[in-house]
Amino acid sequence: MTLSVTVIVKNEEDRIADCLSSVxxxxxxxxxxxxxxxxxxxxICQKYTDKVFVTDWPGFGIQKQRALEKATGDWVLAIDADExxxxxxxxxxxxxxxxxxxxxAFKTKWAVVLFDKQLNYGRSSRYVTRLFRREGxxxxxxxxxxxxxxxxxxxxxxxxxxxxxxxRDYKHLMDKNSLYAWLGGKKRYEKQVYGAGLWGASxxxxxxxxxxxxxxxxxxxxxxxxxMAVIYSQGAFNKYAVLWSLRRNx
Length: 250
Hints:
alpha/beta, Spore Coat Polysaccharide Biosynthesis Protein SpsA, Chain A, 2 domains, two-stranded antiparallel sheet, 7 helices
């Protein structure tokens, strides 16, 4: 079974090499779509593959679909520039594909690394789909929080975790939280979601904190776990506050 690795990037010179180094040994091809980097991202990517394409930015879903359409392998590993495989996960993926799997996709549990701490609970306890059969697969065209769609069939969870270096520093954390809230609110507005106004936004914020910090055991990640529960709660409020503001302006 052959494996295509796809990555969409923009201004990722500080972490793209770690991402690509982690997949180089198991990838039959690496496909990069860059949306206008102004740093050394493209030059770094070209050290790992000759399949580097510079294009515009239509949103996460469409961009990942573009990358998928350039893939030729039997399987696709669609990861982000801020993610990387541990050696154990790389070996597990290679072993799975070498055994002619009957599955249509594999899920991997995240391990967010933030402020020099690996988070194993809270939102980091989620499974994400990164590895799937190419034939019949596609990405939803959402501008943010896109999903991969694949044919019905068996899906297996991998044992080893996918490292996720999603945040560079606290400013980046705030900026990213704000951007995703804005895009998430716009997405719901375009889909004509009601949202229940600011009261609904407040209730969602409280529920998100309880879910992440208590039910998903975020408290076991210490002070950083508490911080992330607050940040996700704040993001939930802001997302529906954006929706409220757009509906009010309309």
